[in-house]
Amino acid sequence: MTAYNVLIIGDENAKSLPLVFKSKYLNKLYTNFECPDIASIKFNTFKELAQKCKSLKIDIVFVENEKLILQGIVDVLKKNFVNCIGVTTKWTNLVLSNQFAREMTSKYEIRTPETFLYPKEFPLMVKADGFTKRANSTEEVIKIREEIFNYSPEIAKSVFLEKFIEGEEFTLTSLYDGKIAAALPVEGLSQEKIKEYNTKLQKMLEGEKADFIGYINSRVIFSNNQLYNIGFNFDFPKLNADILFVFSSMIYQKLEELDIINIVSN
Predict the structure, then answer these.
(1) What is the chain's mean pLDDT, rounded?
(2) I want to staple 77 with a disulfide (CB 3.0 to 4.6 A). Which of 39, 59, 84, 144 is the partner?
């Protein structure tokens, strides 16, 4: 049985930590933070980290530190041929930039709520890069716009108004191995709807030549028998199967061989 050396980049609350601990495929675990009985790796630059990963023969790096992801840690590790689970800098924009997310979903026909040039019905959502807030009146829209402008005139340029959708909200997690995307089942959503959505997400990743191995969480609302995307996040997914088996399979682009139905936690 293959055993892996693993590094977790995050903190003591990293969601991958207890899952890696339980894996029967774990050989040795490292972290970049202090944790009892676990070796800690310190580094000053991402290139230095990549070199340490090679010298310690680390097989998989899980990155859960959003600040470091934004600074390009995944990009540098990948460039230095270190197997890394996490999104590259470009794809952090799905979370950081509502405008970027809207452009991507529109380009690949992922259904999103209608947008308005001016307030014409309430409630509605006021969105800008890294900002989302509900408004119940024109006065509230004006106040929110002013708040955004006072915070950042540059961000204020990205403001748009979005229709408020009534319905049940879900988080739909898609694993991505650099070739295919596979959506985990979600209680309360039919496999047909999940597959329809995931197919479009995969086309987006393929079309944009996404160069990462990891996962994307889509925040969706089910309304009028349709799924509407209302945003994304990169929270670590809940898995029922052995985490190192799942992600090592993804590293070797064998995601399609996994029994997706049975790797999600109840």
Answers:
(1) 95
(2) 84
